[in-house]
Amino acid sequence: xxxxxxxxxxxxxxxxxxxxxxxxxxxxxxxxxxxxxxxxxxxxxxxxxxxxxxxxxxxxxxxxxxxxxxxxxxxxxxxxxxxxxxxxxxxxxxxxxxxxxxxxxxxxxxxxxxxxxxxxxxxxxxxxxxxxxxxxxxxxxxxxxxxxxxxxxxxxxxxxxxxxxxxxxxxxxxxxxxxxxxxxxxxxxxxxxxxxxxxxxxxxxxxxxxxxxxxxxx
Length: 218
Known about the structure:
The protein is α+β, with helices and mostly antiparallel strands.
């Protein structure tokens, strides 16, 4: 059974809303529904941008072409490895899941081992899963803040996440987290590893940042 914590909103003013969300740009905070009043139904409402549900507020995911390209590359590589070893399932940036009773999060890549599901497979009748992720990946965009990512990591690990990668596109570096505060820093010479969550997986970080570069003709 997965223990889901509840993160209760405590903000009373808009300034506190922004602070609690990690001092993110106002342009990513949806005004409708009013902050603090949104529900899961609003996340899936037609016409809405891709958002997470945080403290009853819809927060648009930070998006960018370069970050999207890196995310797509990682999604493909992780999925191919998971599929070839029959380890579980993988979701992309629109793959929301519950990290608590009232928080819907959507990392850029999420791997769920078969063991995360009570029946051994994802439930077909749930819009969003309540399951512990093995691996979560966040690819940073310019509008992401350190405070925002720190909070998200805390919630992901409380939900049962075993390992998380935070990819810094601008710096060409990454952090491999085994808890919200414990991590290994790597540069382009390093390897992204899956640890116990994704045993045997190893990927040169340089290969990730080479995504989108045309191969030279021989």
